[in-house]
Amino acid sequence: RVSSVLNRDVKQFGKKFMFDGDEETCWNSDQGSPQWILVEFTEEVCPEEIQLQFQGGFVGKDCWLEGSSGDGDLKRFMDFYPEDVNSLQISFCLFTVKEAPSVKRLRIVFPTSTDFFGRVTVYKLDIIGTSI
Question: Which SUPFAM superfamilies is this protein grouped with (predicted)?
Fold first, then answer.
């Protein structure tokens, strides 16, 4: 799940485009803060690395990870800070998850963005880890 989709146009900017392997497609949030991505796994996993590919100029700032091992409340467990390399380029960010709890649900929160209107654009999201 995601917090929002630009103009509610899921056919052009929906969440599925973060995972389709196509460099031309992306998830584009609508304006406003915070924005987030929630991933639900079929079994508990221990995330070790998060890879995000943003559109320059639409990068999340001062971000954090939240997780839960079931349907309970999500708990914040790690902060990370993507860099907006260039407003015309795609910014690839890789973050090692330190001392991650085992989770069945993982939420990536973008409380603010480098975009004035709070929009976030993600071309690719990979979560590397192990099954528990």
Answer: Galactose-binding domain-like (SSF49785)
